[in-house]
Amino acid sequence: MKKNLLLLLLLIFQTAAVYYQVGDHEFLHWDDNLYITSNPRVTSGLSGENLLWAFTSTHAANWHPLTWVSHMVDWDLFGENPRGHHYMSLVFRIANACLVFIFLDLCTASRWKSYVIASLFALHPTHIESVAWIAERKDVLSVFFGMLALISYYFYAAHGRTPFYILTLALFLFSLMSKPMLVTLPAVMLLLDYWPLKRCESLTRPFQALSKFGDWRAYRSRNSLILEKMPFLILSLLSGIVTVYAQHKGQAVSNLVVLPFGKRLGNAVNSYFDYLLKQFWPDPLVAFYPYPDSIDFGATTFELIVLAAIFFAALKYARKYPFIIVGWLWFVITLLPVIGILQVGRQAMADRYTYFPSIGVFMIVAFGTPILVAGFAKHRHLLAVASTCAIMACMYVSWKQLAYWKTSFSLFSHALQITPKNAVAHLVLATAFSKSSRPDEAMYHYSEASRFDRSDAEAYNGMGWQYYVKGQPEKAVPLFQKALKLKPDGDLYHLNLGVAYEQTGESELAIQHYREAVRLGPDNLSARKNLRLKTDELSSPSFRPESYPTDPDTAEEISRFFKAAVGKSMAGNFDEAAHYYRRIIALNPKDARAYYYLGILHIFQKRIGEAISCFKEAVKLNPEFYESHYNLAVASGIIGDREGFFRYLDQCLRIKPDYYMAHNQLGLYFLKQGEIGKAIDHFRKALDYFPEFDEAHNNLAIALVQSGKKQEGLSHFRRALQINPEYAEAKRNIEVYGKK
User: Fold this and answer.
1) 724: helix, coil or strand?
2) Phi/psi class of residue 296: alpha, beta or left (left: φ > 0; alpha: ψ in -120 to 50)?
3) Mean pLDDT calculated for residue range 325-333
4) Measured between alpha carbons, how far is 253 from 245 in angstroms, rounded to an integer?
5) 3-state secondary structure labels for all residues of 489-552
């Protein structure tokens, strides 16, 4: 027992020594945003509503509720600091290594062999993704419950007690609810029945019992091991159905036109061979392996012959060395769900897929090597040296490989060095450059991604967004349209196209795409918000039709100037934008909108006096222009004119009693004055009129926390982040107030 404890401590130490560097790693722009940082359900933390979502959603083309819950808990604990998220995955990695050791030691009573297998499992370079990549939490979580299920199964097999059976079934279900990778665990249990549990004389014995199925007594007398696996098989089947549904719904499954069946079979053989080879020589390692343009028939045939030879050799020595056939079938069977016959995603293979299957290969090595060297003098010393060298080699290569995973830039620049025609690598780098406000580099990599994969809608969407943020929405529109042509049900693409149309002055088209975004993505609260704002704007009496020029040429020129002004404003060129608004006023002195937007620019430029003059001119031209009354109130508040602040807000609410911005502004005033009750009333009114008003949710949350209603306040911070995942103030507030 003491030796086991020392080996467990050594296992913990060596794993932590290699992986502690992940504390300095960042969130990646590769699924970490989709799963965590840009997922409002996760960034709003654990709540009843989000818990229900976790169990009913197929977000990211997956159904893994326990993984979602895990990420929500992490966000509550660590917020947007990736260190805690990484270290939590490391805790599961260490726990899994310990569980592998405990399980194998229980089953085989071979302490040192179990330690070697567990060490290779924990430290092998092909397994680093599950810790270095936060989005792969599902991997370590699934294996955590899977190994617990196998330990429980051992006790059931040893003692035959029903509670152990029920516990095994429950843990297996938890594993499937984390990631459906282990749907083949019932087959692994059957392998374990043969060796090392020795519950049957041969691998075919359980299936021979099925021939007596009509004779119930004979069937029972053969103690069918198949029967006891039926509940597990049913769970596997249900998990498979849900997984295929989720992946089809998320359009993650490639059809046979894109990837013909023959090509899939060839790639499956290549992948099995490469996976096996990488267990012994893990080089090169890439985050994403692009699908090959073609399958080399000669190489594939050779690889198939090698794989078949291993299988037949394992069968030949199955009775004498049962660990070979068990280890080999463990490796082959557990890889089946991800080998690519049902192709999910664009990768040809992925190193992370070998995490659990590799245990089978390590079993063959750990139990077979002593037999191979038994004839050598001092073979025990030789085994000790070889094992130590293998473990240290894994530690060194894993440490080196982990460094590439520090940032998206380092990871995918490395990937492009090894696989230059890697569209996904270009796409992730483009996203990283875009988030770092480096549009030229982003545009280059988006362009390269589309060159290597013409069907990549995200590449076209990304290029469109770069034009949009540069203030060139007219160039963004055709790229967003191209993205939608490739993926018509992309709610984000409809949202972006709507935003672009809005900036080009095509308001009706903008509303049309906002509505489509809401229909396709009911949880897309940004689309809901934009739709409401735009429909309110179009229904606003912001200008009188009779004040608009009837001359078509003048009207066209004014429209062109408006678009130019918006573009310059988007690019931050406020002086140039103001120039265009003044040209509009020169063409049509009665255009209240031009005065209004010019006033908004002056507020941005902190020219409050000029802003007030513009807003007054707007309401003089159109007394019902409530937005101008509202902004007069805001400007009055900035210069400390309390009387003007309330007078203009009263006029605004007289015209439009349900104007949420005015109620939010009153709430802010009363909050600043310490009149929390009045502030809460106005923030609630703002949300009654506009439920997707993220700023009002944030402000109400602050007021509620200050009034002692912390939990209700935190729920509104979460709602603000659901509406706008990039809302920095809400993120900061939920961290600050959540810790108090």
Assistant:
1) coil
2) beta
3) 98
4) 10
5) CCHHHHHHHHHHHHHCCCHHHHHHHHHHHHHHCCCCHHHHHHHHHHHHHHHCCCCCHHHCCCCH
For residue 318, give the DSSP letter: T
Distance, CA of 131 to CA of 81 (rounded, Å): 15
Residues 82 and 75: their CA atoms lie apart, in Å, by: 9
Q: In whole angstroms, what is the distance from residue 137 CA to residue 139 CA?
A: 5
pLDDT at 209 over 80: no
Q: How far is Cα 247 from Cα 251, in angstroms, rounded to an integer?
A: 6
- What is the DSSP secondary structure assignment for residue 419, as one 8-state letter? -
pLDDT at 466 over 80: yes
- Phi first, then psi, for residue 86 (nearest 5°) are -65, -45
Q: Measure Cα distances from 554 to 277, 550, 584 in Å.
A: 72, 8, 9
Per-residue pLDDT at 442: 96
- Return all residues near 233 (Cβ < 8 A) that are at least 6 apart: 186
* pLDDT > 50? residue 222: no
Q: Answer yes or no: pTM beyond 0.90.
A: no
Residue 259 carries which side chain, given as an amino acid letter?
Answer: L
If you search the block for the tokens 């545009």, which residue do you land on? 443
Query: CA gyration radius for the chain?
Result: 31
* Residue 348 φ/ψ, nearest 5 degrees: -75, -35
When mean pLDDT is compared across 67-76, 148-157, 215-224, 502-511, the lowest value belongs to 215-224
CA distance 562 to 184: 62
**Cβ proximity of 233 and 305 under 8 Å:** no
Sign of CA dihedral 45, 51, 56, 61: positive
Dist CA 640 CA 41 (whole Å): 40
Tell me which residue of 624, 661, 662 sits closest to 646, measured CA to CA.
662
Integer distance in angstroms from the first to the last C-alpha of the chain?
44
10, 284, 325, 334 from 191: Cα distances, Å: 29, 32, 9, 12
Tens-digit pLDDT profile for residues 698-717 = 999 999 999 999 889 988 98
Q: Distance (Å, rounded) from C-alpha 505 to C-alpha 502? A: 5
Around Cβ 221, how many Cβ atoms within 10 Å?
Answer: 11
- Tokens encoding 552: 């078509």
Q: Which domains does the chain have, with CATH numbers?
A: 2-402 (no CATH), 420-539 (1.25.40.10), 542-657 (1.25.40.10), 660-740 (1.25.40.10)
